[in-house]
Write a structure and sequence with these properties.
The chain is an alpha/beta fold. Helices cover 42% and strands 13% of the residues. The chain is globular.
């Protein structure tokens, strides 16, 4: 692959996917031929921080990319479990993905780990970060505030279809505080 014909990685939890994520995908696809969307923390679900399963998040990504009119030939979606061993994590990601030449990330630890392994890391412009964040979406769901306008419409419809808001509200009432943090 030449530098102009490159494959890029974008890693996120997508809990849930919002318009900021879609904007980031489009930014990356404006600079790379293909994007590998890594669904991080794939083993976690049914907590307030990670309410959706890896399969549900993959569905959200596919719906958003279809709504954004992104050709399915230009992306891969790969769920990856957390190892909780930082020094081994990059090798873990590399072992589970097709070859890539650049990682797009604003997350400091992710950027540091990939750079330490000699992999190019590029930042992504934030799209109204205070509004478009999964934390804000989940907060609004919990507080019964308007949240649909922060997501691609197909993703919002899907969350309603699977009872996502009710799930977040139910797990937020858990009496096990450790479940809330994962």
């Amino acid at each position: 692959m030449t530098d102009s014909a490159k494959r890029a990685v974008f890693i996120g939890r997508f809990q849930p996917l919002h318009l900021g994520h879609l904007n980031a995908f489009q930014h990356v696809l404006g600079r790379a031929d293909e994007i590998i969307v890594v669904v991080g923390s794939a083993q976690y679900s049914h907590t307030t921080r990670n309410p959706f399963t890896a399969g549900e998040r993959i569905t959200m990504i596919r719906l958003a990319l279809r709504e954004g009119k992104v050709d399915a030939e230009r992306y891969y979606i790969i769920p990856i479990r957390d190892l909780h061993i930082h020094k081994m994590w990059v090798a873990h990601v590399v072992s589970l993905t097709p070859d890539f030449s650049v990682v797009y990330s604003n997350e400091p630890l992710t950027s540091t780990l990939f750079r330490e392994e000699g992999i190019k890391v590029e930042p992504i412009p934030f799209f109204d970060r205070n509004t478009y964040s999964s934390t804000e979406v989940r907060r609004r769901m919990l507080q019964d505030e308007s949240w649909r306008d922060l997501l691609p419409s197909t993703v919002a419809d899907y969350i309603e279809q699977i009872g996502g808001v009710e799930r977040i509200r139910n797990v937020a009432q858990s009496d096990n505080p450790n479940e809330m943090k994962r």
